Amino acid sequence: MAEADLRVLMLAQSPISGDSRILRETAALTAAGHSVHVVGRDVPDGFPVEAGATVESVSRSAGLRAGGNGPVVGHGRRGLKVLAQRAVRWLLLPEHRLRTEKQWRTAAAGRLAAMQPYDVVHAHDFNTLELAAEYAGRWSAILVYDSHELWFDRALPGRPTPFWRIRGRRYELGLARRARVVFTVSDGIAQRLRERGLPDVRVVRNTFPRPEVAPVLPASPAGLLYAGRVGAGRDLPTVVEAARQLAPFKTLLMGSVDPNYRLDLGPVEKVPETSIDEVDRVLQESGISLVTLTNTCENHRLALPNKLFHAVRAGVPVVAADLPELRAVITKYHLGTLYEPGNASSLAAAVRAMIADYAGYVDGVRAAADELNWEHDSERLVAAYSTLAKSIQVK
């Protein structure tokens, strides 16, 4: 049976312009001859996509935000009124999260109803899976599930929702069993999904394309850089306390800030956000990349954050949280040192150990770059789609 180029519809509730996984997958599939249309969220007007791919935007509400015009990163406000606002937010956040996600699906469904059928519907994360499964069924299309996280095992702000998690896992698995293939980001998450009953789970890591120019690093590090989302769950209070112990060694922080998140930066220097390529330069000038997470949920324990692979692309060793999946990759490739999440003295000690054997860790990162790159990982994605294409008879 001849292989067909596929018409692929991707659904994603993440802001597409900042989701490097979706953009890279779109580029890889387009380069392989498939046509890709993405229905995402908050796509800027005129946002460029890979030649042949198209994108449209569906918005949803911005979320519960605190009032006031205080600094986004700085000393938190106090007082009974503020405490009451935080209590209400804590109670309402789970319902608000579900409502905004449903709002996006309802609006996106209106767009899909007017579309011609696609060959493949590719759902990015659980909050698009229900809609993707519905239209894959209507169109007799192939369903693909791309689980960026262990969705119902994440650490979420707001009051605990144990029954929602239990019901959600069951519902997710029921929908995901309809998928011809499931992709995810780490071996640990893949193993959990297989244990829960999903037979064909394949790992496509959030690696980065290899740089065109070989990275140039200082002989010894000048500082350490956290480049990523600034918010709860990133263990940033530990970074601040460790920075006090490491001073005058520089600690830098770069990234967009979650609404309502407050952090006393102390000796940590906040630097402006910039492009991915420019982040490479700042990483290389600093010499050490921070890959931090709290040990508060199974998703964190099995995660491989983008910033780990961004550091590999930049040629920069890492100091990372000692969590199972991170530990496995970092020790296998000698990418850096590990610290106990929540323990500032452990983090400071890990930085000092990095400095003491800096050249050795740089060599480890350089060697790992031959395998930990998007050129390698995208082959798994393209191969899976090639198998799907072969299963469709050319009309």
Question: How does this structure look, described?
Answer:
With 395 residues, the protein is of the alpha/beta class. It has 2 domains: 7-207 and 374-388, Glycogen Phosphorylase B (Rossmann fold, 3-Layer(aba) Sandwich); 223-368, Rossmann fold. Helix content is 42%, strand content 16%. The protein contains 13 helices and 13 strands. The protein has helices at 20-31, 80-113, 129-139, 162-176, 187-195, 236-246, 276-286, 298-301, 306-314, 324-333, 344-356, 358-368, 374-390; strands at 7-15, 35-41, 54-57, 120-124, 142-147, 181-184, 201-203, 223-227, 250-254, 269-270, 287-291, 318-321, 336-339. The strands form 2 sheets. Strands 3-2-1-4-5-6-7 form a 7-stranded parallel β-sheet, sandwiched between helices. It has a 6-stranded parallel β-sheet with strand order 10-9-8-11-12-13, sandwiched between helices. Strand 4, helix 3 (129-139) and strand 5 (142-147) form a beta-alpha-beta unit. Helix 6 (236-246) packs across helix 11 (344-356) and helix 7 packs across helix 9 (306-314). It starts with 6 loop residues before the first strand and ends in a 5-residue tail after the last helix. The relative contact order is 0.13. Residues 66-72 have low confidence and may be disordered.
